[in-house]
Amino acid sequence: MKKIINEPLRFVDEFLEGILLAHPDLVKTPGDDPRILVRADAPVAGKVGIVTGGGSGHLPLFKGYVGKGLCDGVAIGNVFSSPSSAQVFEATKAVDGGAGVLYLYGNYGGDVFNFDLSVDLAELEGIPTRTVLGCDDVASQPKERAADRRGVAGIIFAFKAAGAAAERGDSLDEVAAVAQDIVENTATMGVGLTPTILPTTGKPSFELAEREMEIGIGIHGEPGIHRGELESADEIADHLLAPLMADLSLVAGDRVAVLVNGLGATPLEELYVLYRRVHQNLAAAGIEIAKNYVGEYATSLEMAGASISLLKLNDSRLELLNAAARSPFFIEA
Amino acid sequence: MKKIINEPLRFVDEFLEGILLAHPDLVKTPGDDPRILVRADAPVAGKVGIVTGGGSGHLPLFKGYVGKGLCDGVAIGNVFSSPSSAQVFEATKAVDGGAGVLYLYGNYGGDVFNFDLSVDLAELEGIPTRTVLGCDDVASQPKERAADRRGVAGIIFAFKAAGAAAERGDSLDEVAAVAQDIVENTATMGVGLTPTILPTTGKPSFELAEREMEIGIGIHGEPGIHRGELESADEIADHLLAPLMADLSLVAGDRVAVLVNGLGATPLEELYVLYRRVHQNLAAAGIEIAKNYVGEYATSLEMAGASISLLKLNDSRLELLNAAARSPFFIEA
């Protein structure tokens, strides 16, 4: 295991301290706990707050989407582990501007448990909340059980759109409806080539043979739907894209946003080789890419691999994606 | 070798096609060759053009720094190989707005040879040029021979500052002077943990044992100055930072820009662990970080490792760093 770290148990707090030292103009911690991060101007009076969170190890997810036009706060846990309900609640209080708080995070058991506990704590405090779960990983459940799917990289579309809705003054119910609408029109599929090595144990999150890949793998190494010989970039793009197009029932004339996301160790060059094929296939199907993102948006430490996400667009969704946003890791200018 | 690619010999052209498909609003190719990229509005009449280039495999370097307030054009070669003089010359003609063209690239033999040939071609065409070489890698030569050093990640400071100077209307000599001033006040040192695997051969660019690291390694795997047992993040930061501070003769009261750059496979979390220590050490020495960049700015495909660059600041350098810029990979808003 080759990592640039100090004491493994200090890893999460140390990179969070680094983020706070690097970006004091954009984010702050409301108390002493670097695992709770809110935008520097939080709370914004009269604005709906958005709190996200989850395990560490996915930068720029989740810490990277706190800022103007995005989320207001985040609480994160150890690598691949949920934050505590107390941490979620502290983030909630810190971003509450009097218009309520939306919880927007990925559908994982530990996160749901702790955010739900914080819902109750917030209610006692008189802070109304709504919850929308990212559940875009089509490999994790069939379409009929879409609400039970895991949340992966596609949640950034929901951060962006809900963040823009909150910024323009939408009510709590309206912001929640925007997030839900985005989630229901987002689909993601990933491929893993090499595992994450967990800092505390030094153990890989899964194992693959020298020439193997796994399609549909989760960002914590959850099993996918196909394990086999490593394919070409074009074949991989084809295998990831087809289920997404089917899941969203895309037809000629539709518009989409595309996210080609690197899982950590995969070079940007390879992501553009994938994007090229995605663009070609969608163009051939008469589907327009009205917005694209290529890079690392939700990773799994040093996992090699990638995911493709599609968001089916309409005018209002595209307008929300194009609205100004600013965090240390995400700029829409 | 696990890569998401098609035919290895098509790798470079395919990722460049991907970039062109993804960002037609920001960049274009002046002819049929995707290895020549210029900003979408090139040539900008009356503005000094800036052309960079070098080998492929370093995204976002070099292709990523073409845009408003940055470079105007780029010509790139195969992985780790120089572009041809014909390609450099084609980029030159495409960005020539009548105010001359600055060549700003890293100090490597093949690149110098081909850019110098293009200098002659441009002269025949009546396009005046100036050349400034990035030579920030302090591990590659001692201070007395600073102009012979290799160019690595620190060149992005020169792109940013020279690009801003050109954008505000500086003359060719003035833009060249800005670039030269930045280069002379920039120092970089890197550490490698695992090698790049070359797509065409499947061979690693260098070899390191399971627990080894190499300090001072070049971005093509050029030998460094110390090979030994992998150290902690804080120790690595200390070993990279001290020579940079000495090289730039930093003293209490100085201001710097810091770039903590990932070489490809190193998680963003680890870069922030390094940044934390860099910040602590500089603060302890009474040196202010007035600008910071943490992420992947100049990579070596899937090499694991990082580099630290410092730019000694004054008011005019900082103003140029803070000026607006926009490329597919770099935004200063």
From TrEMBL, chains A, B:
GO terms for molecular function: glycerone kinase activity. One of its GO terms (biological process) is glycerol catabolic process. Residues 7-330 form the DhaK domain. Gene3D superfamilies: Dihydroxyacetone kinase, domain 1, Dihydroxyacetone kinase, domain 2. Keywords: Kinase, Transferase. InterPro entries: DhaK_dom (IPR004006), Dihydroxyacetone_Kinase (IPR050861). The keyword Kinase applies. One of its GO terms (cellular component) is cytosol. Coiled coil: none annotated. This is Dihydroxyacetone kinase DhaK subunit. The lineage of its organism: Bacteria, Bacillati, Actinomycetota, Actinomycetes, Propionibacteriales.
